Amino acid sequence: MMKFLKSFFLTLKGWFSKVESRHRPTVAVGENENLARYIFSKSHFSRQSHRVKSEAYMPSRGQVSVFRIDELTESVDLGDW
Amino acid sequence: MTAAISLSGSGSLLTEGTPGVGSDYQRIRYLLQATYQRWLDSVSLGKKLQDTYKQLYQVLEDCGRSDWDAYGANPILLESYENAKRFALALPFSFASPEVSAEPDGEITFEWYSNPRRVFSVSIGPHNELTYAGLFGASRTYGTEVFHDEIPEVILSHIKRVVF
Predict the structure, then answer these.
(1) What is the reported pTM?
(2) Domains of chain B, residue spans
(3) Looking at the predicted complex, does its ipTM rise above 0.85?
């Protein structure tokens, strides 16, 4: 009985991890993958020249946060929640 | 005794670093102050500076608290704001107004932008230090200079490469 339960548990685990991995992005960022950097300060966008300023991409403590957006629909990506 | 006040042709002629002592110096300084105030009140000379001051105040208001960019940025300190005002005041009248923004480390940035390949920016924080970087076609530059009320010539020449 224990043997059966163990094998049943392993089968279920394998099935769930397969389903999960189908929806989880790969660890490495793809060469052509789209990334987004959301801006929360007005000063990072130039109304004068209609462009995002370079300061919007400046690292903080050596790091810049970006979002992987390839799996998102446009409405979610643009914050239409 | 001769009073000496340097007239550099820029807005920096009245800054605290101007050398001089005695009553003659005080008198000349007073006259220059009055003249300078008239320049600032005029639209042709004063509007650019007033526009820059407005942008600076807006940046202080928007970014004066921690995490203003939602990525953990440091706040803009009042010392940085005051230094940035002194920098703006020291800019020559003939230069176009820069665009002002904040950096995650809490410094204030002045940027002159012509196109994506011709851009120059200078950052100033709570200390008397100017950090600059520029892109001029295929060539690029960056560095740090000390700021004592007069903008170093190397920075002025880089700004000229973008605005003229």
Answers:
(1) 0.77
(2) 21-163
(3) no
